[in-house]
Recover the amino acids of this structure.
């Protein structure tokens, strides 16, 4: 039997990280076993379903690399089949017509049990069965609105969950659920069973929040004569405080992480470790390694914590593993978009550009970091951080100005390799009897606008002599103005 799994998001919002994790587990399971991953959009909630949400969800799945083999199917296309299944259950006596509204049913319940007490899960059935023979059909034919409810059989429902093991529900605890509403629309439990059967789904892997639906669905499969798939319920994802994950804990939509410049490979790695582990101490894993190691047996029973620090760490690890050639297109796109660089110019300086990326990437956790770090190297308009100025220039504007002026002169006359640059700077510091750091910090601010950068000699060489001399000179000008305003 070939494995067929599905991911059936409701297009009522962005792809949530919890949904993405569910999609990933299904996808890994399919890829691991050479199975089929089906995508189905559950758009039967007319009010809340929006085509733009479908678009966002498809985009997020593509970004993560979770390609589907079949679909996207739309649940709304199956409504006739759903109704047919409801009618079949009715004809077989496994469902009944319910002409009462929710309010009438609640009122009847209250009348029978004025003190309150347990809800009678079979009340609607009792009323339906109490009608005269043929009455329900007559009223239905006369067009009287009514729901169709499933007649939950006696006994108990059990299944062997791929995550939780043996599960058992007393059927007496399950309502005679509505399967077709009075407006003719199918409910989730009917539609999902009908669709999963139609798509020949063999394994249903989804969140723990659906655990209480599963016995209802199993009973529906059995009543409809469809083969019952295997079920696996993956535990919830919690925020760092142990509460259900929400926006309070940080971004919960996958698109938000894409916008933040996170690598899809890091997101996939992170999501895979939410509730699953490879069984050894590996954390950083490629998607190929995840497929290889994935198994439902290793899905944890307890909830997992959405740890943003771990995501940031994984992101840095994956980022570092990328070659400059892989990072360059994304970086160029962003730099050009931000009006900071010209694509043709970067292409013409490919060796320089790749060397720059290699120099910067180990200090970056994502693409946005890299854009930020690359900025001083690609644009003529250097933005100088005021805190850096305060810290490394303004304590001694005069002295710093004089030293930067002299350094500009000496560097201009120096050959342009790292050893020579280093010799100039260290030699000058020695002459002054100062620590090299004291000389280097103000240079870094003048050249990069910041307090931190990769090794300064490498930075200077890559920046190029002209740019370095120019930046040192404008620092000198700026500092002379400071001196004037101070005096
Ligand atoms: N559309 C449902 C949801 O997003 C699908 C649940 C299921 O996997 O059966 O929760």
């Amino acid at each position: 039997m070939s494995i067929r799994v599905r991911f059936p998001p409701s297009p009522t919002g962005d792809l949530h990280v919890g949904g993405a994790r569910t999609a990933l587990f299904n996808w890994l399971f399919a890829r691991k076993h050479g199975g089929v991953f089906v995508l189905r959009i559950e758009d039967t909630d007319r009010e809340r379903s929006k085509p733009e949400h479908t678009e966002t969800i498809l985009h997020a799945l593509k970004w993560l690399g979770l390609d589907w083999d079949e679909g996207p199917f739309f649940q709304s296309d199956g409504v006739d089949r759903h109704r047919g299944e409801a009618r079949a259950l009715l004809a077989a006596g496994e469902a009944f017509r319910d002409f009462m509204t929710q309010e009438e049913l609640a009122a009847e319940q209250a009348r029978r049990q004025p003190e309150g007490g347990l809800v009678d899960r079979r009340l609607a059935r009792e009323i339906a069965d109490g009608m005269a023979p043929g009455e329900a059909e007559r009223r239905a034919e006369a067009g009287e609105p009514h729901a169709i409810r499933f007649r939950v059989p006696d006994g108990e429902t059990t299944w062997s969950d791929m995550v939780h093991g043996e599960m058992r529900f007393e059927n007496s605890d399950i309502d005679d659920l509505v399967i077709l509403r009075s407006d003719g629309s199918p409910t989730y439990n009917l539609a999902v069973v009908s669709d999963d059967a139609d798509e020949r789904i063999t394994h249903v892997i989804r969140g723990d929040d659906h655990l209480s639906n599963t016995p209802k669905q199993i009973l529906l499969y059995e009543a409809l004569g469809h083969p019952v798939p295997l079920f696996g319920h993956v535990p919830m994802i919690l925020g760092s405080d142990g509460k259900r994950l929400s926006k309070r804990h940080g971004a919960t939509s996958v698109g938000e992480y894409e916008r933040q410049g996170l690598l899809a490979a890091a997101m996939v790695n992170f999501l895979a470790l939410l509730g699953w582990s490879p069984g050894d101490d590996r954390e950083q894993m490629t998607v190929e390694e995840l497929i290889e190691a994935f198994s439902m047996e290793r899905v944890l029973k307890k909830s997992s914590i959405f740890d943003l620090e771990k995501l940031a760490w994984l992101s840095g690890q994956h980022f570092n593993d990328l070659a400059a050639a892989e990072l360059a297109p994304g970086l160029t796109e962003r730099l050009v978009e931000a009006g900071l660089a010209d694509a043709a110019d970067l292409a013409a300086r490919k060796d320089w550009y790749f060397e720059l990326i290699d120099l910067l990437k180990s200090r970056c956790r994502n693409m946005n970091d890299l854009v930020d770090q690359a900025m001083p190297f690609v644009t003529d308009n250097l933005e100088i951080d005021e805190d850096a100025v305060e810290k490394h220039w303004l304590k001694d504007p005069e002295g710093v100005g004089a030293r930067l002026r002299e350094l500009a002169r000496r560097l201009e006359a120096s050959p342009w390799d790292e050893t020579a640059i280093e010799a100039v700077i260290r030699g000058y510091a020695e002459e002054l009897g100062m620590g090299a750091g004291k000389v280097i910090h103000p240079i870094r601010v003048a050249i990069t606008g910041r307090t931190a950068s990769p090794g300064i000699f490498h930075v200077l060489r890559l920046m190029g002599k002209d740019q370095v001399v120019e930046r040192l000179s404008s620092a000198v000008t700026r500092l002379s103005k400071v001196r004037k305003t101070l005096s």
In short: The first helix runs from residue 17 to 32. Residues 8-10, 42, 192, 206, 210 surround glutamic acid (CB under 6 Å). DSSP finds 22 helices and twelve strands in the chain. Residues 5 and 26 are 6 Å apart (CA to CA).
